[in-house]
Amino acid sequence: MKTILLAATAFVGLGITLNAAESSPKDDVLAAAKKLGGKDNYSWKTTVAVPESAPFKPGPTEGKTEKDGFTSLTLSFAENDVQAVLKGDKGAAKTSDSGWQTLAEMANEEGPMRFTAMRLQTFKAPAAQVEQLVGFTKEVKKDGDVYSADLTDEGAKTLLSFRRGGGDAPSVSNASGSVKFWVKDGVLSKYEFSLKAKMSFNGNEFDADRTSTVVIKDVGTTKVTVPDEAKKKLS
Predict the structure, then answer these.
(1) The model's pTM
(2) Range 23-234: architecture per CATH
């Protein structure tokens, strides 16, 4: 009888250990993001879909990053094409009409350049952004290779707010959102997040409704080239 009880206890204990070792869908997504972030380099493309009536229509963003090194971006915003380079907490950018400037220099300007500086100050490469997104989720559910979740209201509001430090930025209210992650061979390959809110800027209120889709590519074969002028601004 003692032998049977001991065997049963051992089996139950083993079952508890196995269950504890099982990862949740949220853990799977975090692991996939960390695995991507651990790669030597990768590229991505972000596209943003907004209604025709939207006052701001972001263009696509092309990005390249290397582990513990530089991140280069090509983006368009408010009809301005911008080339940017980031490393750590430093950054520099240029447009077709201006030379390379630090983010601090851009933030002191009026108009689109100030907003671009604020966007770049809060920028996160995909591996880091997904970790942030997961932190903003409620319950993550899995269906095949796709993971999906609703975002917390506060998380959606944070994602729509790009102010850091001084300067004007739209205020956000009634924010909500959802997110999807695609994982291939244990590595993040794509993600998409949708956000809705009421936004107010300079006394004008408008509805924010956008879906950002990020596709990862060229993992391990991406090469990041940084102009000498940009390097000087980052030194």
Answers:
(1) 0.84
(2) Clam (2.50)
